């Protein structure tokens, strides 16, 4: 977004254009997810947060390094002591301060920032998992409606063959023209269903193209490993889940904040050295100093105790976040498992129903040619075939969706697709 001034001197904003899209002959699953990584701002935000965490860590570590400063002043200064009075018009010098020991204040700050940096890294990995799952679900929606449109096209072709049979029988005087009209009516209805599925396909493709930046009609099938993954609700791998690990790292950071707050009761020991040159009316002189400085708080109105209480509250909240993330994983995994089991059973029943309906369709057509079946019987069995076909397709993609959601819940989705999330630097994203 840019800012310009118009003729009246008022600010005008130039908003960025929407991300572009490109046509592509084929879009694989892995490429779709990696392209979604490159376009999703949440991932860039999570990566930027890691850099913020590293900068905060370096700032905390800098407390152990010497602190060097220059100072200078100009103006009249008058000092009086037992040796007499001293006037100066200007002064300038250099100071050096080195922290020696602070009873855990700096160490606690460093450990806190290290844990927060780890939490940000795990947060990035969790964001990658969520974006990958979202992209894969959009990918499945496109394939779902493509398959349903193909089923509608198959049924439409079959109904057209029924219409041809009705035309031949009507021309031969074996049936009335009403049979032809009935077939045409059913064909019109199937055409409407086909266009509905095509519209839903275009809508799903639009959603996928927003995520990936690619428009493609050719989407390969998902790997069978997703359907063969080990599913267990008794021993979920919480320790491998990046959402849980991020929450645990934040809990450790909260514990270090308690350590820092408690250390405020103790003194800070440092050494300080300086060399200052003063300019006065009688001549210039140097003032050198080397001191051991002990800063020991005596009373701060209860501020330190309040900080300890606040830090303990943060730790309790962080512990609750860990348990909440585990509960969320458990709920998502249990729901996905139940949906997967039900979808597989529905798919099996739908395939059996489809096989039975297709066999009955062949028998009904032969009997219709011999005038032993009415056209209503033939159109009815065509409807049964279409319903069984669409039910089987819907159940199949419901099972795929549940398998994806389970893999996403246990944070195993990207690993099963061969997309590695580096654990070396934390902010290096997978690339095409």
UniProtKB/TrEMBL annotation:
Compartments it resides in: Cell outer membrane
UniProt xrefs under Gene3D superfamilies: Outer membrane efflux proteins (OEP) (1.20.1600.10)
Record SUPFAM superfamilies: Outer membrane efflux proteins (OEP)
One matching Pfam family: OEP
Predominant location: membrane
InterPro entries, alphabetized: OMP_efflux, T1SS_OMP_TolC, TolC-like
Keyword ATP-binding in annotation: no
Keyword Membrane appears in the UniProt entry: yes
NCBIfam families: type_I_sec_TolC
Family that this chain belongs to: Belongs to the outer membrane factor (OMF) (TC 1.B.17) family.
Protein name: TolC family outer membrane protein
Species of origin: Franconibacter daqui
């Amino acid at each position: 977004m840019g800012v310009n001034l118009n003729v009246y001197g008022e600010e005008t904003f130039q908003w960025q254009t929407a991300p572009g899209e490109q046509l592509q002959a084929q879009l694989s699953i892995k490429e779709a997810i990696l392209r979604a990584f490159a376009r999703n701002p949440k991932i860039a935000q999570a990566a930027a947060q890691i850099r913020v965490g590293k900068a905060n860590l370096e700032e905390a570590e800098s407390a152990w390094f010497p602190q060097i400063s220059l100072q200078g002043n100009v103006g009249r200064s008058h000092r009086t002591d037992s040796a007499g009075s001293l006037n100066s018009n200007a002064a300038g010098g250099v100071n050096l301060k080195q922290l020696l020991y602070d009873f855990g204040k700096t160490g606690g700050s460093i450990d806190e920032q290290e844990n927060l940096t780890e939490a940000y890294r795990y947060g990035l990995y969790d964001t990658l998992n969520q974006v990958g799952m979202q992209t894969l679900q959009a990918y499945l929606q496109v394939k779902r409606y493509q398959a349903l449109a193909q089923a509608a096209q198959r049924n439409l072709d079959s109904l057209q063959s029924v219409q041809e049979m009705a035309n031949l029988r009507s021309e031969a005087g074996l049936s009335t023209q009403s049979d032809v009209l009935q077939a045409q009516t059913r064909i019109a209805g199937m055409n409407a269903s086909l266009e509905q599925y095509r519209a839903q396909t275009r809508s799903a493709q639009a959603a996928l193209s927003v995520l990936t930046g690619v428009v493609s009609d050719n989407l390969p099938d998902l790997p069978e490993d997703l359907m063969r993954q080990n599913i267990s609700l008794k021993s979920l791998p919480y320790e491998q889940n990046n959402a849980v690990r991020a929450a645990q790292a934040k809990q450790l950071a909260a514990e270090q904040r308690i350590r820092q707050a408690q250390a405020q009761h103790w003194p800070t020991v440092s050494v300080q050295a300086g060399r200052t040159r003063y300019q006065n009316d009688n001549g210039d002189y140097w003032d050198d100093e080397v001191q051991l400085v002990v800063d020991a708080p005596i009373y701060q109105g209860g501020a330190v105790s309040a900080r300890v209480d606040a830090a303990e509250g943060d730790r309790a909240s962080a512990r609750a976040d860990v348990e909440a993330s585990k509960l969320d994983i458990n709920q998502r995994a249990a729901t996905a498992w139940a949906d997967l089991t039900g979808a597989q059973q529905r798919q099996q029943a739908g395939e059996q129903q489809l096989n039975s309906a297709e066999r009955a369709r062949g028998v009904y057509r032969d009997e219709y040619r011999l005038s032993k079946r009415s056209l209503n019987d033939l159109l009815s069995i065509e409807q049964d075939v279409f319903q069984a076909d669409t039910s089987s397709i819907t159940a199949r993609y419901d099972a795929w969706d549940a398998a994806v959601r389970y893999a996403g819940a246990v944070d195993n989705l990207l690993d099963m697709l061969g997309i590695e999330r580096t654990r070396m630097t934390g902010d290096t994203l997978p690339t095409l």
